[in-house]
Amino acid sequence: MKLKSLLIPLLLITNFIIAQQITCSAKDKEIFTQKIALLKKGYTPTANFGKTIMYVGKTFLGTPYVAKTLETGTKESLVINLQGLDCTTFVENVLAFGLLLKNNKEDFEAYTEYLEKIRYKDGKLNGYASRLHYFSEWIANNQQKGIIKNNTADIGGIEIEKEINFMSTHRNLYPFLKDDKNFEGILQSEKVVSESSFCFLPKEEVKENEESIASGDIIALTTSIKGLDITHTGIATREKDGRIHLLHASSKGQVEISELPLAEYLQKIKNNTGIMVSRPQ
C-alpha cells in the first residue's frame, strides 16, 4: 500500500512533464484524426517518396498562413498547430505525415515522434536552442538523420560561406531570447552554422536546371540579407505546364501553389539569391 501511494504521485508528475513538452489543442488533435483518415482513404503505397510527399502536401491547400506558430508559452514545447501553418511548419508537417504513410502508422504518438525528430537537433527537444531555427542547419541536421538528402551540389550549386547571426543581432524580435541561457544557446548554434559552408543554386540558373528538380523536393530560398541564410521554404511540384512550381504556406494568406513557375517566382522576391534543394528519403 505504501509503495502504491508513492507510485501514484510519481505517475502524475511524469504525465505532467510529458504534457508540458507538447502543446496541442483539442481542435488540433481532431484535425490530426481527420487528416489521417483522409490520407489513408486515398493513399496508394509507392516506392517513390516524392509522390507521397506531393499527395500529403496538396491536402493542406487552403490551410491559413499563420506566422510564428512555434513562439508560444514561456518554455519550449513541441507545438502541434494544424489550424495555421508558416512555411517551415508546413514542410515539417508534410514530412511527418508522409513518414506515417510510408511506415504504415497512424497513431498520434508516432506523429509527434516524427515531428520532434524533424524539428530539433538530433531529434530531441532540449530547450529553445535545440530547435533548428536556421533552415540551412535544418537541412544539414535532417540529412544526418537520414530524413532528407541535400541535392544542391549535384544540380550545379555553388559553395559559399556566410556569417549567420540574424537572431542574436535582432534579439528584440525573439521573446525567448530575453532569457540569457536561450541567447547563449543561439550564439553557439550560429557559430556552428557560420563555420559550415553550404551550397546554393543561383536563381539565374534555376530554369536551366529544372529537370534535376523532382516533385516532392524541399526548396529553400537563400538570401542576401545580412546574417540570414534562408527566408522561405516550400515543396517543388511539377504542374501541367511541365514546369516546377512552389507548393508553400504563402504569407499572402494560405497554403497554395505559386502561379508562376519557380524560376520566374524567384525573380520577384527581393534579396533572393537562389535555392537549396533537398530530397526526402
What does this structure look like?
This protein has 9 helices and 10 strands. With 281 residues, the chain is an alpha+beta fold. Strands 3, 4, 5, 6, 7, 8, 9 and 10 form an 8-stranded antiparallel sheet that branches. It has a two-stranded parallel ribbon with strand order 1-2. A hairpin with a 5-residue loop joins β7 and β8. The protein is globular and about 50 Å long.
Short synopsis of the structure:
The chain has 281 residues and is α+β, with helices and mostly antiparallel strands. 39% of the residues lie in helices and 18% in strands.
What's the layout of helices and strands?
Blueprint: H1 2-21, E1 22-24, H2 26-42, H3 49-58, E2 78-80, H4 87-102, H5 108-119, H6 135-144, E3 148-150, E4 158-160, H7 166-169, H8 180-194, E5 198-202, E6 218-223, E7 230-238, E8 244-249, E9 255-257, H9 262-267, E10 272-280
Parallel strand pairs: 1-2
Antiparallel strand pairs: 3-10, 4-5, 5-10, 6-7, 6-10, 7-8, 8-9
Helix pairs in contact: 3-4, 4-5
**Computed Rg:** 20 Å
Shape category: globular
Please summarize the sheet with the most strands. Answer: 8 strands, antiparallel
What share of residues is helical? 25-40%
Structural class: alpha+beta
| Terminal-residue CA separation | 51 Å
What order do the SSEs take from the amino end to the carboxyl end, as H and E?
Answer: HEHHEHHHEEHHEEEEEHE
Average of per-residue pLDDT values = 92
- How much of the polypeptide forms β-strand, as a percent range? 15-25%
DSSP helical segment count = 9
Low-confidence stretches: 1-20
